[in-house]
Amino acid sequence: MSPKDEAAHLVEEGKPLDDQRAYRRALGQFATGVAIITASTGDELAGVTANSFTSVSLDPPLVLWSLETKAQSLPVFREATHFAVNVLSADQVALSTRFARSSADKFKAVEWRSGMGGAPLIKGVAAHFECRREAEYEGGDHVILIGRVDRFSRFDREVLVFAHGRYGLSVDHPAIDVARRTLVETGDPHPLDDFLLPLMFRAYEQLSGAFERHREAEGLTINQSRILACLAAHPGSSIETLSRLSYVGQATAEDAVAALLSSGLAAMRPPGVIDITADGRARLHGIVTRARAFEAEKLAGIREADVAALRRALAALGKVSSE
Questions:
Q1: May I ask the CATH class of domain 32-161?
Q2: Mean pLDDT by 10 residues, the chain (323 residues)
Q3: Rounded distance, CA 57 to CA 64, Å?
């Protein structure tokens, strides 16, 4: 790629301390999994959402994660002999947002069992890592905690992914689809070709990427357009509510709201909630108009009956997953 092509794709750059929000957005280009780290001391439970979890060493089996020095749960993690890493599955977005916020009753109505050292093991996850505290290091405004994995469990579930400030799923690269189609043509189909989740997310990635130029024409990012749509449907929402409704992280929601406020598309009102403005509704109308035309173009070659059946099926699946 030539320097000219590289410059054409540059969105923002700078020094981290000059613009921490931009720096955080750049970090968001690196996709990670999502985990809830848990521990307990006596009757006190602690749990926080983290995407800083990573493997350090296989022999010995060491992992690390980091926690803000101002976190209320830090004393529990420092006192506990063990902590557990609960790697979230694809249908646990609500749990992720729940444990990302400060709350006294995070574990209320959450199914879990006690693991090594009393660390809660949450049900329905993709993996558990039960760790004995090995070491702790200061890392700026965070504490880096290293644990030795004493026991692990892996479950047959799709993992939750976080990238570009929003939740997603792990789907195969389109190049892999080409290889799969070759196998199908030779009479050896891939067993996942007909599964709904891969089909839906491949379609989503293709359509969302193709619609990006329309969002850019309206001067909005995908996260800003999501937040704007949520504000239209739920005026007077807090940032925490917008984060949950739009399936983006708290920091991403804060960035999107800040951009909408500065451009006059949203406005703050007491007691610290956000409303969409008239300009915001006009901009959203532009996006919706483009989306309807885009959708009509992409569905032009599909029978109306099939499209109607698809809408019913997706609506039913959405209702089931939210129950």
A1: mainly beta
A2: 70 88 85 95 93 94 96 95 96 91 86 96 96 95 96 93 84 60 50 68 81 87 91 92 86 90 92 92 93 91 89 81 54
A3: 10
